[in-house]
Amino acid sequence: MQVTFLGTSSGVPTRARNVSSVAVRLPQRSELWLFDCGEATQHQFLRSELRISQLRRIFITHMHGDHIFGLPGLLASLGLAGNCGGIDIYGPDPLRDYLESILRTSSTRIGYPLRTHRVHTAASSGIVLLDDKEFVVTCALLSHRIPAYAYRIDQKPRMGTFNIAKARELGISPGPIYADLKAGHEIILADGRIIKGSTLCGPQKPGYSFVYCTDTVFTESAINLARGADLLIHESTFAHSETEMAYQRQHSTTIMAAQTAAEAKVGQLVLTHLSPRYAHGNTLTPADLLNEAKAIFPSTFLAKDFLSFEIIPKVSSSSDL
Ligand SMILES: [Zn+2]
Ligand SMILES: [Zn+2]
């Protein structure tokens, strides 16, 4: 799973940081999933290595403008490109009304299947939104001025390495049958022998997990959703000295983000959604925010626009969880 930040500022863009958006590239699928779509996200796509034509799903955390003003333009451009196979969008009310009215009043014809899925839950432990062959997506309600949801992707455990030598020893010649065996399926050979693919594969490899958590003040539901994840991307709008303002505006400080990561025992934390007040040249800078969080959770990194990296699997033991 490759993560690319397309926008890392809160509220308004700055010269260095656009408003919220994160793209996740799924392994073996040539597919992109987008989390939030602040204004000019499609411009950020053009300046990145990512291909907008690979976009398949969009997850919207909440209906504040800095997370959704880029949607209509991006969806319209996908239509004009003419090669979009369809988009599924997930988000809270009034996402569907917002999109329908803006597309209608601007006479925008989309021309591809656009499916909106309403996210609505009060469960603090998270509910399953999507469950396919390889991935499960869950979400949980955060604590913000309006309903806001955190999302988690879990890649299911993958089959271990296929032992070709063992397959040959059993007299199975290479061919399409290998794909079935690699997938762990049971097959019947021409001579009547039944072979279980899983017996020719090494131990299962654990999948990766990713959690995107914004906008919110410190909340138990974020800890519950993020528990044991390889990567937690968490908002950190304010420095610790602005804790009072963070509570007033229902946003997180560096310390709240780090405490969430520490209590959830995640592998890595990345801070994003930084207030423009910490732009370089001001008294406090993003580097100060990073140091505050690292004092509590050392494996913390700072997001910046176009930062792109592969998720590293967390070295975990069952006692971690
Ligand atoms: Zn925001
Ligand atoms: Zn917000």
From TrEMBL:
<keyword id="KW-0378">Hydrolase</keyword>
<dbReference type="Pfam" id="PF23023">
    <property type="entry name" value="Anti-Pycsar_Apyc1"/>
</dbReference>
<dbReference type="GO" id="GO:0042781">
    <property type="term" value="F:3'-tRNA processing endoribonuclease activity"/>
</dbReference>
<keyword id="KW-0862">Zinc</keyword>
<feature type="domain" description="Metallo-beta-lactamase">
    <location>
        <begin position="18"/>
        <end position="185"/>
    </location>
</feature>
<dbReference type="GO" id="GO:0042802">
    <property type="term" value="F:identical protein binding"/>
</dbReference>
<keyword id="KW-0934">Plastid</keyword>
<dbReference type="GO" id="GO:0046872">
    <property type="term" value="F:metal ion binding"/>
</dbReference>
<comment type="subunit">
    <text>Homodimer.</text>
</comment>
<dbReference type="Pfam" id="PF12706">
    <property type="entry name" value="Lactamase_B_2"/>
</dbReference>
<keyword id="KW-0479">Metal-binding</keyword>
<dbReference type="InterPro" id="IPR036866">
    <property type="entry name" value="RibonucZ/Hydroxyglut_hydro"/>
</dbReference>
<keyword id="KW-0540">Nuclease</keyword>
<dbReference type="InterPro" id="IPR013471">
    <property type="entry name" value="RNase_Z/BN"/>
</dbReference>
<dbReference type="InterPro" id="IPR001279">
    <property type="entry name" value="Metallo-B-lactamas"/>
</dbReference>
<keyword id="KW-0819">tRNA processing</keyword>
<protein>
    <submittedName>
        <fullName>Ribonuclease Z</fullName>
    </submittedName>
</protein>
<keyword id="KW-0255">Endonuclease</keyword>
